[in-house]
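Suppose a colleague, Dr. K., hands you the sequence of a protein chain of 610 amino acids and asks what its three-dimensional shape might be. Before reaching for any lab equipment, you can write down a predicted structure in token form. Begin with the sequence itself:
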Amino acid sequence: MSALAWALPVLPLAAGALLLLAGRRADRIAPLAGVLVALGTLVLAVAAAAQRPKVTFPLFAGLPAGLHVDGLSAVMVLTVASAALAVLVFAAGDIGADEPRARFFGLMLVFAGAMLVTVTASDLAVLLMAWEVMGAMSYALIGFWWHDPERVESANVAFLTTRAGDLGLYFAAGCAVAGTHSLSLGALADAASPWRDLVAAGIVLAAFGKSAQLPFSFWLSRAMAGPSPVSALLHSATMVAAGAYLLIRVHPLLEATGWAEALVAWVGALTALVMGAVAVAQRDLKQLLAASTCAQIGFMVLAAGVGSVAGGAAQLVAHAAVKCLLFLGAGAWLTALGTKDLGELHGAARRFRLVGVTFGAGALALAGLPPLSLWVTKDVVLASAPTPLYAVGLAAGVLAAAYSVKALVAVWRPEDALTRDDTDQRGTRHVGLAELLPMPVLAAIGAGFGIVALPGVLGPWQRLLGASGEHGPTAVELLLSGAIALVVAVAVSRRPVPELRVAANWFYLERAADRLVARPVLAFAEALARFDDRVLDGAVRMVAAGGRAAASVASRRLEFPADGLVDGLGRAVRRLGALARRPQTGQVHTYYAQAAVLLVVLALVVVLVG
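The predicted structure, expressed as tokens, is then:
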């Protein structure tokens, strides 16, 4: 059992590391190797979900660590492994032979392995290590085309923004040791006050940063600079969902603090609403999908805040399949047509029918139209929300229908002469079998997964996750949300949606972060550098100059007299030596005379003393 817990993440980690070490020499075999490793990982994930392995090992003295597949992590390992396989199959056809394939597939496999460690970690230390590897791989994959300075800058923004949030996880780990003398995720809710609140604050900060929730949402816009398969795996199905998963995992801690539960719920709901407005205003398909990712993950975060573990998990899985499908469709059109602008994608779904049909299924599911998956999963989340949060969530659902149908109408609208001319000038590339193969499977999962949240099936799903007793949606609530989504979809299909300029620019969140955080921090760092150069270094230079001056004074006023004293003593000794040599004449009678004089002197001394 423990061997299976180790093998599940080690297989993609080791294979990815080998591809990275091999470099361009492995470019030819990298796609096949990546797909085979992803397939093997999915087989191990199925076995792990069935057998629920657990392993514990010593990491620090008195602080055991481990990996454990329980009900929630069983769902997650299947989701991660399935998404990784689908995306790597697509990438095998999408990433050209002239690209560094070994580096791409190696980074993707290492990322998948790190994500599997994240969702199975039973303590903060192991989770934190995997969390860091995910961030590093995300940085490398967003900046995969590193020859383009703009893409590198986008990778820097995304990395630094998530890193700012990640500091909260370090803080939480330290406070957990102080408050519980343990790093176990299950023990966090038992921490003594105020450590429990500090641990919760750190985890919430890290989760908001990783999941691109307000005010961190803007980094996901920058992340779209990476290849489309990267967006499909990292920024819809795995890494961006990791923060929401962590909040669902530590819901007992949020509940124990009280304030954290309310904060998480409101931030999730407001992110769903605000980022929904951002998605509606986008004219770039990948930017629309990125903003909608923030919004849909907001529902998962809301689920963690209101204690809907079953709803949050169902929303996560359904969204992973749907958004992975939509990003792959956008990537196929970008590769084939050379554009992601909605105005230039008219007729794209008609040119590439399979992509268009599957993309349409995903978009309708994202819109929350019945009977598709996100219609049900969203309502399961909202069923546990109090009235104010329910109202905000319902409004966010209206926006979800608007931005989903907006994208769907754009790609299915017949192309006009101008669009056709632009497409002809850019040229059209064939969409290969490898790129098409995952789409029908993802469309089927994305459309039908909501069955787990329907009445009659919700109970077993809750028991699987250890969340029995949670509220489910009533028939009235399901009919209300479905009817609203249908009305909005029809309205948007007939009339263009108003686009707010401030929303199109992501409410200037990045500019605000730059002016309120980045610039003050850089200014403070520059001030410290000047203080170091002028004050501290100046003080050191003054001490050195004072030492030189003291040495100079000592040389002029002390060294010369001291040297004179030594010279005088030497001269006196030489003179005494010369006087001592005079009696040494070499004549015997002189020595007798000297001896006689000495005896007389001694006799006089004896007489006088006596």
